């Protein structure tokens, strides 16, 4: 029987107006870690100047961690991943590139694998879209 060391991972680009996210964002990430929902594997900040130049700031390059959770696999988000995810960062704004392991899905992934199954497709729908749709179609 196979037990995976890591569960599935997801990459997120979380956009913000201005040059950096506020402390509430880091607290929300920390809360997910504390609840055992996710494991933060990597976290990178990007910001695009008003002129359109992209700056990439690895968490390890910061002098003050600002309460950011410890990273399990810092550097997992490669430059190509970061550039792809940062493509939609508008001039004068920023984003956190977050790579998380879905701890809730770790045992499920092992069970699927052991049963000869595999996830062959997945589609994510952002929460604002789900909530807007449900509100619009509520009885």
From TrEMBL:
InterPro entries: DUF6325. Pfam families: DUF6325. This is DUF1269 domain-containing protein. It comes from Microbacterium allomyrinae.
